[in-house]
């Protein structure tokens, strides 16, 4: 217990909260560690990974390498090993450890425990067999493994995972980096939301918080990119992008199918307005698609990516839609374009106010100006916006 107390005290030092409801006390975290037996001996992890053998390496990010291992009881694990030279990785590591301490859901990756041994700091997760969604979805030679049933189940599973994080976990958690590479698939193709290095706790009494921008190009909501307004609707926007990527098999950030469309969202919306939404569908789904479900999911994706965050549904609403056969859905308005301003016919008081608590002074892993573990992930101050091109149609990034 002495080691547990010492580690957990060091673990939560970087996290200070503006509201007593946002975090758990040191005593609570110590009880969690003791009750759930979340501490692993370093020797156990050395043995499980065969001394972190290169052959067991699953990948590497800004935080450091990840190794596959097998415990004596037969459980397969993934061990995230903090790089001693990565300051950004340390922040993300600590953030992830704190936020996942009491999170447990079928569609959220399971943090089994922690380990600290001298300068070594490690996080231990369940091993997820089928890797990340992007490795299957955006590689033509593996895309056919994702038939429509699997894609639909992934959409439903990610929706349920986000609903849990937003409404049903001990605190409201905004992930901030929902994307295909952060969705892991287990041996039964159950999706698991992963990588909480940039996630934030959200105060219950606020409509949004003002913070520095962190996320991945192509997935970030426009009000967040342009104004630093962070709310659960930013995750909803990212989810909508993911839904349209799953249906089309196309990556939004590198979309280049039509000169008449700025991105995947714009292309999907234009086809939808023409009554040709099924043209969005990945051709490999032709033999397995349930057209009614595909059409519904396209509409959900467009509703989630609307420029006005107030028009986007909550994840609760999305889960309800997916669990039923709705007779009619709202008509989506034009999607927001990450990095460009959007117009609204009204300006709700919630967004015109600066009442949201600024978390800048109590920053977590996301608030450093650096590249994260994905080459497309970025952090930047919210006051810096992309230049518009001379036609005023789309942002230009230098």
Oligomer: single chain
Please, how many helices? 13
Contiguous runs where pLDDT drops below 50 for at least 5 residues: 11-30, 340-398
**Beta-strand proportion:** 5-15%
Choose one word for the global shape: globular
Radius of gyration: 21 Å
What top-tier CATH class of the largest domain fits best?
A: Mainly Alpha
Give the helix/strand class.
alpha+beta
What is the spatial order of strands in the main beta sheet?
1-2-3-5-4
Profile the largest sheet: 5 strands, antiparallel
Helix content: 25-40%
**CATH superfamily membership of the largest domain:** Transferase(Phosphotransferase) domain 1
Domain module tally: 2
Query: What is the terminal-to-terminal distance?
Result: 52 Å
Descriptive overview:
The protein has about 400 residues and is α+β, with helices and mostly antiparallel strands. The protein has two domains: about 1-125, Phosphorylase Kinase, domain 1 (2-Layer Sandwich), CATH 3.30.200; about 135-395, Transferase(Phosphotransferase) domain 1 (Transferase(Phosphotransferase), domain 1, Orthogonal Bundle). It has helices at about 1-10, 25-35, 40-50, 85-100, 135, 140-145, 150-170, 220-225, 230-250, 265-275, 290-305, 315-325, 350, and strands spanning about 55-60, 65-70, 75-80, 110-115, 120-125, 170-175, 185, 190-195, 200, 210, 215, 230, 375-380, 385-390, 395. The strands form six sheets. Strands 1-2-3-5-4 form a five-stranded antiparallel β-sheet, covered by helices on one side. It has a two-stranded antiparallel ribbon with strand order 6-9. β4 and β5 (about 120-125) form a beta hairpin. α1 crosses α2 and α9 runs antiparallel to α11. The radius of gyration is 21 Å and the shape is globular. About 45% of the residues are buried.
